[in-house]
UniProtKB/TrEMBL annotation:
Keywords: Isomerase. It comes from the Bacteria. This is Maleylpyruvate isomerase N-terminal domain-containing protein. Residues 169-262 form the MDMPI C-terminal domain. It comes from Streptomyces akebiae.
Length: 272
């Protein structure tokens, strides 16, 4: 996907997040992040937006700590604070030069491409969290933050499927970022004592990923859909559902082979 497409997605997803948070109320529980209420979600995502904005606007060459959102704000004041940070991030990305030079933490064509992509997916996943607080959640605790419980298998009502507004292209891009970026890093905890192979297959595109699991960080690659390697476990489904399932926001659509590998993902793939 192009940077402009990521920025458009960030714009839309931030607006949807705000609308869901306003409707749910800041005291509503967030089922997809069991220890959070909507105010925690807004403070976290708003802080991430400001953190990203600073790298792009000021060209910081090295990492800087992420600070918490304002504990003293709540209700409409907190929503306004979130909206302001989201708008500033969009304005900053749109105004940034193509040759922007600043710190990043995943491979990308450029720092600008990295931050637009990362914030588009960050905001999308947390938009799903905000919508789960409306009371139509799939009831599947999981989540991105440390200490979240594993997602529990159950049926998801298609009428409340949070993946419905995600395009296959965007979802595939997000799975690429997660498998080839985040979990390629040494900090990934998805490890096995005995080497195993996990395959992820999107049923509505030709996208297939092979994930080699061992005592080292997962080694993932895009596979040839027509000639996939043998796998110990395969997870399949529409790209949008796979995207949210791999981020532990929905159950896996379908699992064949050894279900223990799908369980291993649930238990160890959380990213802080």
């Amino acid at each position: 996907m192009e940077t402009a497409e990521h920025i458009r997605a960030l714009d839309e997803e931030g607006r949807l997040l705000t609308a869901a948070a306003r409707k749910a109320g800041t005291d509503a529980e967030v089922p997809t992040c069991p220890s959070w209420r909507v105010r925690d979600l807004l403070r976290h995502t708003g802080a991430v937006h400001r953190w990203a904005t600073a790298f792009v606007a000021e060209g910081h060459p090295s990492p800087r700590p992420l600070t918490n959102g304002p504990a003293e704000r709540d209700g409409d004041a907190l929503l306004s604070w979130f909206e302001d940070g989201h708008r500033r991030l969009l304005d900053t990305l749109r105004a940034a030069p193509a040759d922007l030079d600043c710190w990043t933490f995943l491979p990308a064509p450029s720092p600008l491409a990295f931050w637009a992509r990362r914030q588009a997916h960050e905001t999308t996943v947390h938009r799903v969290d905000a919508e789960s607080a409306l009371g139509d959640a799939p009831g599947a605790p999981g989540g991105m933050e440390p200490g979240m419980d594993a997602v529990k298998d159950h049926a998801v009502d298609p009428a409340t499927d949070f993946a419905m507004n995600l395009t296959a292209e965007f979802a595939v891009d997000g799975i690429d970022e997660l498998l080839l970026g985040f979990h390629a890093r040494p900090r990934s905890r998805v490890r096995t004592g005995t080497p195993r192979v996990l395959r992820v297959r999107a049923t509505d595109t030709d996208a297939v990923w092979t994930v080699r699991l061992s005592s080292e960080p997962p080694a993932a690659e895009r596979a040839d859909a027509a000639r996939p390697l043998d796998a110990d476990c395969e997870i399949t489904g529409p790209a949008s559902r796979l995207y949210l399932a791999l981020w532990n926001r929905l159950p896996f659509p379908a699992v064949t082979g050894d279900p223990a590998l799908a369980g291993l993902w649930r238990e160890t793939s959380g990213i802080g």
